[in-house]
Structures are given as C-alpha cells and as structure tokens.
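My current task is to audit a protein record that another person submitted. Alongside the sequence sits a line of tokens, each denoting a local backbone shape. Please read both lines and tell me whether the tokens look consistent with the sequence. Do not assume that whoever made the record got everything right. Thanks in advance; the entry in question is below.
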Amino acid sequence: MLTERKRILIVEDDLISAEYIKELLIEQNYEVYEISDTAADAIKQAKKFKPDLILMDIMLKGQMSGLEAAMQIHQDNPNIKIIFLTAYSEEEMIEYAVDANADAYLLKPYRDDEILATIKLQLADNSQKPQAKETDDIMLKGGYRYNTKLCRLFKGNEEVAIGKTPLKLIDILVKNINVSVSNEQICTYIWGERKNDKTLRSLIHRIRSKISHDIIQNINCTSQYLI
C-alpha cells in the first residue's frame, strides 16, 4: 500500500535558500506545495493547501513576522506542525517561538540531516502512534503517566512540575515508545541543534532528581535513550 506523501509549505524570503530546501524535500518524497516569502501569503497558502508541516522563517518581508503568522495559522488549524528557521539565537526570540507554539526551532546555518530529522520526528507525531489514538494517557513506570494531548506528566491525579524542556524530552521518548532515540534526534527536537552528551545527561539528571522512579533508560551506555 502506498503511503500518502506529506505536504510541506516553505515560508522563506531568501529564494535561493528556499529553493534548496524544496529540492531537498522533493528528493525525500515530500510534496512541497508552495514557497511563500511573506507572512500574509503563508497564512493564505496554509488555508488553501492545509499542509502537514510548515518550515517558517521568523524574519520575513512585510510588516508581519513568521511568529505572528504561525499564531494565526494555529488558530485556524492547530494540527499543522510549524518548524521555525532563524539565524537569531537570543533567548527572547526563543521565548517568542514558544509563545507561538513552535513544534521545533532550527538555527541557521543548519545541515540537511538536521532539517530532515526534525521534519521526520514532527510528522511522525500524527501517525504510527496507535497508543495515542486509543488514549491521551501513556502509562510509564512507577505509576507515572504522560498525557500526549496536554503534554503534561502526572502521578496519580497530581501533575508533576518539571519544566518545559524536561517535558519535551519525555514527549519525544513517549512518541517513540519502546524505540531507542539518539542523542542527536533528541537535541534536534528539543533545542533545534546538536548538543554535547553532557548537556543531555544534565537534563536527564534534572528529571531524575524530581521524580521518584527512573523512567528514562540509557541503552547500553550509548547515546541512545528510551522510555
């Protein structure tokens, strides 16, 4: 059975960069519907084509930014995945991306494998997850449960407050349950760029310090993890 090709909208005012990404995605059998260079056109094309995912530059031509476009697009269709592309790494810009409900954040210059890995992870959220279709709650070790709809961790009826970044780590592991996920895949999903092993180990240590059961496993002391 042939699988449906995933539809992607590229929003980038650098035409050379946009065309390069388009060719890269077509080679991977994605269906690229359009290249938009303004936020207004991105909103229009998102309504028209209903893409599965949008690659959105934050700084665009015109009066509206990619962040503003993303918020409006999500108001119309919250199921569209949006990955921000930007050369700006300031904390304030990242916070704006969080407010716009970004699904991922890639810093320029990025590598082809980073773009493709991030897209693959985001598009996998909408399929291949029979557990999430049956229930929003995924049961974990030690009586913990993760709600995939709310993106929250609970023990019993009490929410466990561990912070946004730790929840992103648990989120990617839950969405690939019983499958090991590499350091690079995790870092791309959480931070939009590669990090050294120490950064990820520190994040896992923070999680382990806040919960009473070790729900994250390191596979054979390699840089792969599962939940």
